[in-house]
Amino acid sequence: MTVQDRDRRSHRMLAGLLADSHLMPLERLPAKVAEHAEPAGLAHVTIYLADLQRRVLRNLAEEGADECRQRNHSSELRIEGTVPGRAFQYGRLLPAASACPGKCRWWAPLLGGSERLGLLRVTTDADDRRTREDVQALADAVALIVTVKRDYSDAYARTVRTESMNVAAEMQWRLLPPRSYSDGRVVISAALEPAYRVGGDAFDYALDGPLVHLSIFDAMGHDTAAGLTASLAMGASRNARRRKAGLVETTEEIEEVLVEQFEGTRYATGVVARLDTGTGLFEWVNRGHHPPILIRGGRWVAELACAPGDPMGLGLGVAPQVCREQLEPGDRLVLYTDGIPEARTVTGGEFGLTGFLDFLIRHHADRLPLPETLCRLMRRVSDHQVGEFQDDATVLFCAWLGCSPDDTERAAAVAGVPLPQSAAHADLPAVRGIGGELPGPADVMAPDRRS
Fold first, then answer.
1. From the CB of residue 7, how many other CB atoms can be counted at a distance below 10 Å?
2. CA 42 to CA 385: how far, in whole Å?
């Protein structure tokens, strides 16, 4: 087959799938992907979506597929300690074991921006750079379609949930931004637990030209009212921010909304902040919350001291103030709620701020992608509590890399996102990190022993 023939075949695959996606429910995506991919030489395509806690990858079942065909595709894959899990964790196209002689099978990450959505499993006849390019291009198109359609698809919600969810969590997940964002200036990543029973924690971020807005809230209580309090705080913050209100004014408007709604019986602590990526100036207002943490050079850590105002919603009239810190390229900011350092064992031993910071620094040194560091952090906190979160635990990371959104090489490494064409134009080296090298084709590896 000539290069021109392959170009036409690949173009028809992508153009046809994207054209069909405009009038297609998410449940039809597996069938449509198969329809357009097979003529391009990409066969047996299976879509896997990661669950909310990033522990398993679940098959997005093809609508109307017969039982025999479904049995040939695993309904659920473990992430930790497997090759598909590594492809997901590191955002890398990786070879998989193939049961068909003369065929190649691939695991391709589904990335919505830098948010890790899941994987494609694809079988091909060839193993060359152009084939890898086609596999990754198909994965990118599928990820784009999933990102567009997931917000109004109950099929998506059921697929990514492994247990039932309370009403407060239902509200929070609907309002939260994606858990990861990256460009050449910043990498942002967040995690929130307990995923299915969260009460009053929330995080938010947004970009406005060179400014990056960050906020975290911890509402009183662990019930539906706590979820409503956090949702109101986040909504009021966004409303004020989009009218270009200052940081102090933003927290005062949150206060007004909560006082009006709850008459001083409910409150939220929080940090509302902004980072100027052009200068590295970080400004924030602390309303009765834990101070932000600064990590520099992967070693030096400081809590950013700032006289806090009162929690929002009590109407105590304690005037907040704007605090400032000059960052250096490569600095990482950490906002968190008390459910992380105050996590306790059954005998009462706290995870502690020192344990929290030690974990972050150690895993920074291992050069893990930032989203994967947070996944491992939440697993460690969960293990510390013997699997049960006694309080909401939320963490929001922001790594400032520099002032240019187009200088993306470093951001790709921090976020675990392949640079454009990197999957197609490079050989497939072993992935290094926690657990050592990835071997060649094998679907299952020994689990990592180090947390």
1. 11
2. 45
Question: Are the CB atoms for 245 and 282 separated by under 8 Å?
Answer: no
At 212 the three-state DSSP class reads strand
Q: Identify the DSSP state of 176.
A: S
| More confident: 389 or 172 | 172
219 within 8 A of 226, measured Cβ to Cβ = yes
Residues 6+ apart with CB under 8 A from 292: 271, 273, 282, 284, 303, 304, 333, 334, 335
Cα gap 394→381, rounded to integer Å: 11
List of long-range contacts for 356-360, beta carbons under 8 Å, 24+ apart: 357/293, 357/295, 357/301, 360/295, 360/334
- 437-449: per-residue pLDDT in tens? 333 333 333 333 2
Structure tokens at 217: 């809230």
Query: Tokens 């979820």 label which residue?
Result: 227
pLDDT digits (tens, 9 = 90+) for 86-99: 999 999 999 987 66
Distance CA 399, CA 111 (A): 19
User: Given its phi and psi angles, is residue 90 left (phi above 0), alpha (psi -120 to 50 degrees) or beta?
Assistant: alpha
CB 253 within 8 A of CB 313: no
- C-alpha torsion sign, points 81, 85, 87, 90: negative
What's the rounded Cα separation, in Å, for the pair 240 and 249? 8
Terminal CA-to-CA distance of the chain, rounded, Å? Answer: 48
CA-based nearest residue to 203, from 311, 334, 295, 312 = 334
pLDDT at 297 over 50: yes
The torsion angle over the Cα atoms of residues 364, 366, 369 and 372, rounded to 10 degrees, is -90
DSSP string, 63-78: TT--HHHHHTS-SEEE
pTM: 0.88
Instruction: Determine the distance from the C-alpha atom of residue 276 to the mean position of all C-alpha atoms in its chain, rounded to a whole number.
Output: 23
**Least confident interval from 227-241, 395-409, 430-444:** 430-444
Mean pLDDT of the residues in the chain: 87
